[in-house]
Design brief:
The structure is a single chain. About 45% of the residues lie in helices and about 15% in strands. The protein is of the alpha/beta class. The chain has a single domain, classed as TIM Barrel, CATH 3.20.20. It has an 8-stranded parallel beta barrel, surrounded by 10 helices. The longest helix has 22 residues. The protein binds glyceraldehyde-3-phosphate (G3H), 1,3-dihydroxyacetonephosphate, sodium ion and zinc ion. The site of 1,3-dihydroxyacetonephosphate has 14 residues, from strand 3, strand 8 and helix 12.
């Protein structure tokens, strides 16, 4: 059934686990997540970005998720809008039937300009007002996602700002987080700790100076009852990069967020972990491999099938690693 995000996150907090929130854009990704959840009995957060809504079109996004509900009626499922850039966008998602929305007020509505704190409070508060009236959960974001190696935002992937930032802008401040939660009354807070979207997060396996898990502990100490959200949480597995490059891909050396760091974060209030890139890498590797090995094939179902399998495998792995097994 369609459930509220708040309900899922409260349960995760009470039972000490985290829930991966997977970005979906098409049929095969939705099927992969649902099948993985079914196999391990996990709850599901399917999230759609503005890019997903543009790619598939709103009716298709809506009905793909409706189809998932119909095909898997016993799995608790949240339909979440990822990175809403304005209260209007969030209202649109609610009208479309989303049970949870993210108001990303860390940037202004252009998605580029770093927003003032007051702007962020204002737009997030507005969305909480309109969403809570109809039982919809709200995620906000405080602090700008970006790299503590380059001090740059994650514009490379088409998201966020390319501005050079200070360490303080790139790390959520615990005191400000407490004030933000109090003023907005949001349900979940996305924090900045040095992760960024896409495949190119770190030039080496991250250590505490560039992936600030300690900052999560400080934030959690200050606001122990707020559900925390980690964006840019793909682990960018080296074996997936290797498959892509073995079959004609040209991805540069790069590192993601190690699963053991996420597991540590889950001990300190992180309940929602956003993952998109790992699914992309898994599917791309599988398609490259299949087509390289079967150059005579042209039925897309034949190459989409291994891609869907690869996506399912990574989703299932994350469900187990984050402690979701049996929580569905
Ligand atoms: O927010 C980031 C997700 O990876 C969505 O990416 O905007 O390319 O759909 P997208
Ligand atoms: P990744 O690019 O690390 O998968 O992050 C996805 C994300 O944060 C979506 O909001
Ligand atoms: Na989100
Ligand atoms: Zn994100």
């Amino acid at each position: 059934p369609l459930v509220s995000m708040r309900e899922l996150l409260d349960h995760a907090a009470a039972n000490g686990y985290g829930i991966p929130a997977f970005n979906v854009n098409n049929l095969e990704q939705v099927q992969a997540v649902m099948e993985a959840a079914k196999e391990v009995d996990a709850p599901v957060i399917l999230q759609a970005s503005a890019g997903a809504r543009k790619y598939a079109g709103e009716p298709f996004v809506k009905h793909l998720i409706q189809a998932a509900l119909e095909a898997y009626p016993s799995i608790p499922l949240v339909m979440h809008q990822d990175h809403g850039q304005s209260p209007d966008v969030c209202q649109g998602a609610i009208n479309l039937g989303f049970s949870s929305v993210m108001m990303d007020g860390s940037l202004e509505a252009d998605g580029k300009t770093i927003a003032s704190y007051d702007y962020n409070v204002d737009v997030t508060r507005k969305v909480v007002d309109l969403a809570h009236k109809v039982g919809v959960t709200v995620e906000g974001e405080l602090g700008c996602l970006g790299s503590l190696e380059t001090m740059k935002g994650d514009k490379e992937d088409g998201h966020g700002t390319e501005a050079t930032m200070t360490r303080e802008q790139l790390l959520t401040d615990p005191e400000q987080a407490a004030d933000f939660v109090k003023k907005t009354q949001l349900d979940a807070l996305a924090i900045a700790i040095g992760t960024s979207h896409g495949a190119y997060k770190f030039s080496r396996k991250p250590t505490g100076d560039i992936l600030a898990i300690d900052r999560i502990k400080e934030i959690h100490r200050r606001i122990p009852n707020t559900h925390l959200v980690m964006h840019g949480s793909s682990s960018v597995p080296q074996d997936l990069l290797a498959i892509i490059n073995q079959y004609g891909g040209k991805m540069k050396e790069t590192y993601g967020v190690p699963v053991e760091e996420i597991q540590e974060a889950i001990k300190y209030g992180v309940r929602k972990i956003n993952i998109d890139t790992d699914i992309r890498l898994a599917m791309t590797g599988a398609v490259r491999k299949f087509l390289a090995e079967n150059p005579d094939k042209f039925d897309m179902r034949e190459w989409m099938k291994p891609a869907r399998e690869a996506a399912k495998k990574i989703c299932k792995q994350r469900y187990i690693e984050f402690g979701c097994e049996g929580q569905g």
